[in-house]
Structure formats: structure tokens, C-alpha cells
Amino acid sequence: MSHTIHVDISRAANGRQQIRSRNAVAEAGRAADGSDADDAFRAGELLLGALGACTAGTVWAYARQHGITALEEVRVHVAGDEETAPSRIARIRVEVQVSGALSEVERDRLQRAAHACKIHNTLRHLPEISVGVSLAEAPVSA
């Protein structure tokens, strides 16, 4: 089954990029003057955050669907090494910590589930990406 996910990005009044999908809103980018800002995500952090959130959610969903009721907590730390030429995140490390009275078999099953999230699959099996640039219509003056 195929489903299309939509996300819209526009410039917010503070100069950052505003990201909207459904009723959710987030901001990414630097301060309006171009300096680093600690109160907004950078695009690379959003990518790593998407991978971490997807991984944690997939582990929780797998546990729920397969009756692994001893799972108490899932914590994920994601780190990415930046490179240049071209600018990118060249290496990503995902560390998943689970807690609860889990058997070795259950931990192994959760480990396999952690590799099955949509974002992990997208990064492993590179998507086709197309970028189009068009001229926006000028606003109508009253």
C-alpha cells in the first residue's frame, strides 16, 4: 500500500523555517541574524530526531503487538558525524536502551524491531528525490 506524507515549510517571522504537517508545527534553523540558536532544531538534528523517534516508536509498537509486556522504557540516542564536500551527515549511530525484566530472546526481538522503522528503511534504501523550483505568484494588492 502506498501513502503520501505531506510537510510544508515556510519562513517564520523570526527568520527560521516553520515546518507544518497536519496540526503539528515545529521550527528549524538559525536566529534571524544568522547566528546559532539553541532554541530551534537544525535540519540535521531533525533528521536524527526522526530516526530516533521512529526507532523508539517501532520498538514500542513491536512490544505491544507481540505481547512483550515487561518492556518498561525505551530510550534512544542518535549521533551523526558531519562531513563536507558534499555537506552531509556521513555516519549515524543509534543506541537503543530498553529497561524491564526482558528475557534475552525478547531483547533480541526488540533489537531486530529497532532496525525496521520507516526512517531507517528510507536511509538504507535511498529514495528517489526530485526537487522543483517554481516562481510563486505575487500577492494581490488591495
UniProtKB/TrEMBL annotation:
InterPro entries: KH_dom-like_a/b, OsmC/Ohr_fam, OsmC/Ohrsf. Pfam families: OsmC. This is Uncharacterized OsmC-related protein.
